[in-house]
């Protein structure tokens, strides 16, 4: 898999040649070509996993099933991320509340010490 430029590309927009499920695709991207190639390898791997577990040889059906599996994984990870964010927000609020109480208690203690010193 290599980066090639076609005559219709504008300078700075390379075409990245990838192979997914025995098909060659030329993808124009100004992003990281290694990343695009990794994505293509991920999709290829997922399609091959799907095809090995099904009886269909239709590459379009395999692609759709792979897309559904990838979408499911994405949505599950999004939910986990949202739950982790919510837990973090809750814990942050709890820590901020504890810190406020500690600072207030410290302030009260310092005031009491100052008052007891001034009466001595």
Description of the structure:
- The chain is mostly helical.
- The chain has one domain (3-112).
- Helix content is 68%, strand content 12%.
- A three-stranded antiparallel β-sheet has the order 1-2-3, covered by helices on one side.
- Strand 2 and strand 3 (23-28) form a beta hairpin.
- Helix 1 (33-53) crosses helix 2.
- The longest helix is centred in the C-terminal third of the chain and has 60 residues, at 59-118.
- 7% of the residues are buried.
- Mean pLDDT is 88; it is low at 1-9.
Give a topology summary.
Elements: E1 3-4, E2 15-20, E3 23-28, H1 33-53, H2 59-118
Antiparallel strand pairs: 1-2, 2-3
Helix pairs in contact: 1-2
Taken together, the total number of domains comes to 1
Structural class: mainly alpha
Determine the fraction of residues in helical runs and give it as a percent range. 55-70%
Mean pLDDT level: 88
Instruction: Give the termini separation.
Output: 84 Å
**What is the CA-atom radius of gyration, in angstroms?**
29 Å
Global outline: elongated
Unreliably modeled segments? 1-9
* Number of E strands: 3
What is the count of helical runs?
A: 2
SSE run: EEEHH
Major sheet characteristics: 3 strands, antiparallel
Estimate the strand proportion.
5-15%
Oligomer: single chain
Strand arrangement in the largest pleated sheet: 1-2-3
Main traits of this protein?
3-stranded antiparallel sheet, 120 residues, mainly alpha, elongated, 2 helices, single chain
């Amino acid at each position: 898999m290599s980066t090639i430029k076609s005559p219709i590309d504008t300078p700075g927009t390379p075409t990245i040649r990838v192979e997914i499920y025995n098909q060659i695709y030329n993808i124009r991207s100004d992003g990281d070509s290694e990343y695009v190639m990794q994505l293509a390898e991920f999709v290829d791997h997922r399609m091959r996993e799907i095809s090995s577990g099904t009886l269909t040889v239709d590459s379009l059906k395999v692609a759709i099933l792979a897309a559904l599996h990838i979408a499911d994984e994405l949505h599950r990870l999004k939910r986990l991320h949202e739950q982790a964010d919510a837990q973090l927000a809750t814990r942050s609020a709890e820590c901020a509340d504890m810190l406020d109480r500690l600072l207030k208690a410290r302030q009260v203690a310092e005031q009491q010490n100052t008052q007891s010193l001034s009466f001595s």
